[in-house]
Design the sequence.
């Protein structure tokens, strides 16, 4: 299915009649993830991937963005779409080079899932890129085996997301423990207050009963001698 979608080109030259779109998958350059960019345009009801470039770590993200900027400018696009990133990177880095960075509305997992029917129907034309084809073939095989949704991403893209999910779970567990112990403290304080209140009421009741008993013993009778 994937091989049938591959065109007879490695990279298409920009055409004056086409409106191009840029997509990036950023990386910090220190881990195992590559920094990739893709250029595409619509052709009727289908999509043509004109160019795909990749830089593997280690690298400087600023240098890679400078390189990719030249590619984007050659296709007359000043906006790219990519993952949501915390801390302003890479939007700020792209903005320094005159490129607007827009966060994708869908996750990469959802994008991969929606790509498969397009590949099957011939709605996408891919360039001749061995690594791209290998990753898409791996995606196709894992989906055909009925693996879980999170496993539909290429393995090279899963490590960072796995670490993020693990971190979020640890934070959530820590917050849950804090809420649990905070609730115990509140309940203990409430029980302590109720016990002290009940003890004070018991002391007051006993004192009141003692005063009433003494009053009955010392009250003079009408026929007592004076």
Sequence:
């Amino acid at each position: 299915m994937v091989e049938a979608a591959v065109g007879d080109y490695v990279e298409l030259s920009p055409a004056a009649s086409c409106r191009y779109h840029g997509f990036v998958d950023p990386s910090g350059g220190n881990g195992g993830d590559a920094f990739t960019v893709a250029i595409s345009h619509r052709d009727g009801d289908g999509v043509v991937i004109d160019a795909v470039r990749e830089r593997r770590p280690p690298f400087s993200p600023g240098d890679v963005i400078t390189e990719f900027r030249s590619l984007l400018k050659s296709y007359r696009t000043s906006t790219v779409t990519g993952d949501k990133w915390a801390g302003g990177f890479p939007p700020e880095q792209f903005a320094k080079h005159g490129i607007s960075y827009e966060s994708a509305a869908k996750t990469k997992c959802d994008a991969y899932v929606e790509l498969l029917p397009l590949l099957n129907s011939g709605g996408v034309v891919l360039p001749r890129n061995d690594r791209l084809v290998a990753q898409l073939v791996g995606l196709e095989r894992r989906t055909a085996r009925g693996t879980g949704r999170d496993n539909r991403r290429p393995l090279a893209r899963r490590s960072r997301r796995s670490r993020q999910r693990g971190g979020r779970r640890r934070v959530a567990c820590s917050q849950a423990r804090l809420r649990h112990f905070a609730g115990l403290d509140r309940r203990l304080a409430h029980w302590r207050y109720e016990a002290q209140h009940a003890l004070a009421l018991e002391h007051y009741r006993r004192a009141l009963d003692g005063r009433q008993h003494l009053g009955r013993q010392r009250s003079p009778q009408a026929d007592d001698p004076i």
